[in-house]
Batch of 2 targets.
Target 1
Amino acid sequence: MKAFVTGGAGFIASHLEDVLIKAGCKVCAADIIEPAKCHNIAHLKDNDRFTYRQLDVTDVNALTKATADYDIIYHLAANSDIQRGGQDPAMDYAMTFQTTRAVLEAVRTNRIPKIFFSSTSAVYGDIKGNLNELTGGLKPISYYGAAKLSSEAMISAYSYMNDFDALIFRFPNVIGPRLTHGVIFDFLHKLKHSPKKLEILGNGKQNKQYVYVTDLVQGIWEFSQKKEPGLNLYNVSTESYTDVDTIADLVCERLGLKDVEYSYTGGNCGWKGDVPSFGYDIAKAKAAGWKFKYNSTEAVRETLRQVDVAYISSL
Ligand SMILES: NC(=O)c1ccc[n+]([C@@H]2O[C@H](COP(=O)([O-])OP(=O)(O)OC[C@H]3O[C@@H](n4cnc5c(N)ncnc54)[C@H](O)[C@@H]3O)[C@@H](O)[C@H]2O)c1
């Protein structure tokens, strides 16, 4: 199988590419990042089943040329930093929505039979309860969530109009080695530079589900091999939660720091657009074969065991 991965130099894509190559696929990773700065995929550069293309995925013509004879596009390019997108709505519009629109045009022109799309729990907004795929009244509260939800809508229409299959996973928080952002990254970065104090955004009680990246990418690979016609959408996650204070304690433990003084910016969310807590009902995904090795807090611990702290603090 020939697989094309957008956002291919990113955190999750780099792990997906590891799985695809191990499974025997030929993989092309496309990302806007210049090759010398693609640290997450440096280990793949000499693999003869792997190629890298520096490409702006919003460029419909360039993307259409690049994807001409691929069997599947795994579309992971996006602005993954929700907080930064909150300062500049154009980021989510271009990097998340317009990349999707370009991918869909390339799929339509090249008659590619399948795409995978990395969506997010942020499409729901601040809705309480166990969210499943049929939960309605979706009201994203971040530009990021809005760009993902509108991308899902475009995928639905393009898939129907052009008879290709589309698989959408709505990820929760994804963590693991090579992470590029998020609460663990933020705490490691802050504590390496100032080991006695830690500023925590919000009140520390934000409580979310975390999934370990290798569990996620294994699921993406297995589900994308199934013959499921049309559009198929799954909430994938662990079934447990971890709050931000617990993550702060585990990061301090990992760095061997004691008596760190925590300060809180206050309020129940980290920043405007942050959903303070959410929970998924993953019955549909489990019935279809979704499995995970690490529960939420185990995923945090394993990430802290595996992550390259020196690299993060050098950024
Ligand atoms: N990490 C999470 O917790 C999480 C949760 C839900 C959904 N997701 C989604 O999963 C996907 C991967 O996320 P990640 O955490 O690996 O983020 P990441 O930032 O590490 O990877 C995203 C990649 O997309 C690339 N990109 C952005 N705009 C581009 C463009 N115009 N052309 C080419 N490349 C472009 C970036 O350079 C980056 O390498 C994203 O779509 C993200 O929204 C991630």
Target 2
Amino acid sequence: MTILSVLDARQIPHEVRLDAILQKLNSLKTGEGVVLVAPHAPDQLMRKLLKEFPGRYDFSPGSRGPEAWRYHIVARQAGPRTVSGYLAWDHDRLDGIMEIATKLAEQDQWPRAANVLAEFKEGLFRHIDIEEAILFPAFEERTGMRDVGPTAVMRLEHVDIKEAVNDIAAAAKAKSLDDFESAKGRLLGVLVEHNMKEEQVIYPGVDQMLDGASREQLVEKLLLG
Ligand SMILES: [Fe+2]
Ligand SMILES: [Fe+2]
């Protein structure tokens, strides 16, 4: 996974904060990224990135408040965006977070593992939310498949995925490696294939159904969701 350096905006004086952040982001090479830590929701910055540097950054929240907002921002090859590009990137990002949590759990570092898992949970639940609220309706509207069809299956799997994630978090709280591993096994039993089906069927399906401008618009909604 991409190693992200931390850019703590709370340490930068307010008057020069935005410029300093943009300068740092500008200096990133393709594939490099940062974890931006902000004292409030950085919505304005994210909109600015989309408007002034179209197609240049992928980003997703690591955590959202109440004291700090952590955003993962990674520079990509500027150019047209696709649903596949953004959401598959987010799958990989989440896999990377789970990898870190697993290492910490195996090393018996439970408080840190629990923190990383909280970030995983927030990120995955948000990923599921934007799929269900923004992406799946676009697919269902164009295919007429709502109650039956691939998105109906994905919605059901999301329920199992969320349940397994909650069990993993509970295992970390109880500091039980056995429970952690068994809940993680249950999660991966659903998630690996789930992500594959989305990446092979739903994401490219929506990409193909939309023209360039609507696709760009949809991906922006996902990014800001
Ligand atoms: Fe999903
Ligand atoms: Fe997904």
